Amino acid sequence: MKNNILFIMSICLLIGCKAQNPAAQQQQEVCKTLSHGYLKIQNQDEYQFWRLEKIVTQAQQNTLKLTYKQPTESGVMMSSLLLPTVEFVCTQQQQQIKVAVQQPTGQLVQVLELKLAETAIGKPQSHDLVAQSKTQ
Questions:
Q1: Residue partners of 96: CB distance under 8 A and separation at least 6
Q2: Domain count, the chain
Q3: Within a domain: residue 59?
Q4: 104 found inside a domain
């Protein structure tokens, strides 16, 4: 009887889980890769990915905020505000993904822009992803 109840509860929980939109998943992966690559190019690859947040904007853009933190000397990442932090804002508008670094003042400084091939949007299985980047 207990097994039946556990089985039914498991099914109910699985039904309640939403599968992620493939286009949103693609944007998250591209944003993570671009921001990590930017940190590496800037010789700041000691920063580690901490958190990803979806930001709701008035323009209905797909905007993500990625937070990277520098771990302590023992390699532990804590939520302490005292640890050095880098925040990226990644926005997708149609066929472009723009990555900006958020300054402590709140100002955004765009560091990368990626233009996607039209056939690649929403098709994560496609291997014809074309990208261009520019740094400022």
A1: 113, 114, 115, 116
A2: 1
A3: yes
A4: yes
Residues contacting 99, CB < 8 A, separation 6+: 31, 34, 35, 38, 88, 89, 90, 110, 111, 112, 113, 114
pLDDT confidence of residue 56: 79
- Does residue 26 form part of some domain? yes
pLDDT in tens, 35-68: 999 999 999 988 989 899 998 777 657 899 999 9
- The vertex-111 CA angle with 97 and 48, nearest 5°, equals 90
Domain range spanning residue 53?
A: 21-120
The amino acid at 55? I
Instruction: Specify the pLDDT at position 132.
Output: 53
Q: How many CB atoms lie within 10 A of CB 81?
A: 6
Is 95:116 a contact under the CB 8 Å cutoff?
yes
In a domain, residue 13? The reply is no
Contact criterion met (CB below 8 Å) for 95 and 119: no
Confidence of residue 75 (pLDDT cuts 50, 70, 90): low
pLDDT per residue as tens digits for the range 82-119: 678 899 999 988 888 899 999 988 899 999 998 877 65
